[in-house]
Amino acid sequence: MKTTTCTLALLSCLLFDGSAWAHAHLRAEVPAADGTVGTAPTALSLTFSEGLEIKLSGATLKGSDGKAASTGAPSLSPSDDKLMMVPITGQLGAGVYTVEWHALAKDGHTTHGTYKFTVGH
To answer: Cα separation of 85 and 82, whole Å?
Structure first.
């Protein structure tokens, strides 16, 4: 009986380790969510809890009028596969902007979300 209990406990640990429930959650962003910047940013930096598959991850930037701002292709930091960088190629004026992001973690789970920031006058 004791051997069976130990075996079941070991199998549970192997089958239900933390990686089975991993998702790429947004942990930090620049510009910061709900923050105000004095100068228009030239890139978005999004840090996730898990490594990303960059070919299926990305972000869009929209102004308060709902129109998309010009951005370049997302890339990963060469030293951190959890850090997605998205260049902003167009000029941003003062106003509120919405970042819409989607991420595919290396474990195959997808997540998405939005946040806003303001470019000051």
So the answer is: 10
**How many helices (H) and strands (E) are present in the chain, helices listed first?**
1, 8
26 pLDDT more than 70: yes
Q: pLDDT digit string (tens) for 38-61?
A: 999 999 999 999 999 999 999 999
Indicate which CATH number applies to the domain containing 28: 2.60.40.1220
Domain count, the chain: 1
What's the CA angle centered on 116, arms 26 and 40, to 5 degrees?
Answer: 105
Closest by Cα among 34, 27, 26, 37 to 117: 34
